[in-house]
Amino acid sequence: MSADAATRVLFDEPGPRGRATIRLATIVAVVLVALLVAGAVWQFAVHGQLAAYKWQFFTYSAIVKTLIIDGIGNTFLATAVAAVVAFPFGLVLALGRLSTQPVLSKVSTAWIEFFRSMPMILVVYAFLLALPRFGVVLPVFWMLVVPMILVSSASTAEVFRAGIKAVDRGQWEAAQSLGMGPGLVLAQIVLPQAFRIVLPNLLTGLVSLLKDSTLGYVVSYGELMQQGKELVAYYHYMIQTYLVIALIYVLINWLLTRLAAYLQVRMGTRKAAAAPVAVDLEPAQ
Known about the structure:
Number of helices: 10
Largest sheet: none
CATH topology: MetI-like fold
Strand content: under 5%
Radius of gyration: 25 Å
């Protein structure tokens, strides 16, 4: 099914009046956003926040090292380690939930539903304040990364489960009719297709992990927000520092989102190209 056809299934295609209304609403929204941005810039200028000397300190090598190299580097490190562990663990949880073994399915379901409903910051505080009372003390890095893994694995498990269930059931039956066991069917036929289906969603999950890393300030881990907090305490340029940090996050998340959209289009194109072509086997009259 093409993207246009899928869209028409979700809602009726707007007529001329509807398209005109959508265009008008879009123009009004763009104008309002532009006015808000212009108003914010004007307020900054009136209160002297755009003065050159308040932005000049971003050219200092020490600031570049602290904010850009250390801050972004630590952010990427926490995000990468959490993703490397959480995504495979989420696949294991998805397979456990789909298992025909009742105990394994119930345990996996309970794990997924519990951590899906838990706010990330509560899990971080549990590792920071609660677990040390019972003698469980982790390094600062793992106080942030382990909660990221626990919460992300639960949401990723549901992504993998949806991808596995999206594979046509007829492929299971066809492979098993050829003598392939369930494990072989899963490993060689179902999981490769499911992975291609969920790859854009995994990149979206990577964006969520990147945002979750901002909670590193709770445990004083030196990610981007924590480095910015220390710069504000030392230089007292709060607006300038957090604006630069916000722009960095927007740029990184935009790049990841564009990559996810690109992969989604590529996967759709490849799937359409691999679709079977109907051939007329009747002899010509």
